[in-house]
Amino acid sequence: MAVRHQFENSNDIGVFANLTNSYALTAFGGSENFYSLFESECADHIPIVKTSVAGTALVGRMTVGNKNGLLMPNSTTDQELMHVRNSLPDNVVVQRVDERLCALGNCVSCNDYVALIHPDLDRDTEEIIADVLGVEVFRQSIANNVLVGSYCKFTNQGGLVCGSTSVEDLDELSSLLQVPLVAGTINRGSEVIGAGLTANDWIAFCGLDTTSTELQVIESVFKLRDAKPSNIVNEMRSSLIDAMM
User: Has residue 137 got a pLDDT over 60?
Assistant: First the structure.
C-alpha cells in the first residue's frame, strides 16, 4: 500500500522520515498526526522512533539505514545517538560516521543487500557502509546527479529513479541492484524521488501532491499491492533457511 501524507505543510516525506524493514525514524516536531500515521500503519510490525538529528528534523536526509544498521552523521549529539540506540532492536547496529558529506540520506541509497553511494564519499565511509549495513557498495551517479539518495529510492522489491534517467542507465542500474526499476516522478512532477518518498518492502509514504498515476507506478514497481509484513517476514525466513542448508 502507498499512503499520501504531509509533514506540517511539506510534501517531502522522505526528508522527515526514514523507513526500513526493521524500524522507522520520524522527526520531532510537526503535528502529532505525522507520527500517528506511521504508528497506525507500521507499529504492529516495527518500532517507530521519534528523534532529531543534529538538532534538526531532517532525519530522512541526515541518516541512512536498512534492516541491519543505521548510519548517522558526525554532528549527531550523544543524547540523540543513545536515544536511537535504546529504541531500536538489539540486532540493528547504530553508528556515527565522520564524513564531510554529512547529509548521508542524500549521498547514499540502499536496500538490505546493495548500496549506491556518492562518487566522492571517503574510502573509510564506504567500508563503514559495507560493514554496518551489510551491503555491496557501488559508486554511482543517476542521470548525471551525484546525489544518488535524492534521485532514487529502491527496496528489495523494486525502485523508482528520476524521470530524466536514460534507458541505458536504467538497465545498468537494474542489473547492478538486481531489482526492477522504473523512471518516474513524485509529488506531481518532482524528480527528487528520495525527498518525496520513503518506502520499505510492504508500505510507502509519499507527499500529498502525488498524483494517482504516480501512486499507481509506486505501488506497481515496489510490489505493494499484495504486500503484507507477515508475507515479507515469511519470505525472509524461508530464504534464510535456504541459505543455511
Answer: yes
Question: From start to end of the chain, where are the E strands?
Answer: 2-5, 17-19, 24-27, 48-51, 64-65, 69-73, 93-97, 108-110, 114-117, 136-139, 152-154, 159-162, 181-184, 197-199, 204-207
Q: State the Cα–Cα distance between residues 112 and 134, nearest whole angstrom.
A: 7
pTM for this predicted structure = 0.89
Nearest to 223 by CA among 160, 166, 176: 160
Q: Could you tell me the pLDDT band of residue 234, with boundaries at 50, 70 and 90?
A: low
Beta strand pairing call for 197-199 and 181-184: unpaired
Tell me if 162 sits within 8 A of 145, measured CB to CB: yes
Confidence tier at 235 by pLDDT (50, 70, 90): low
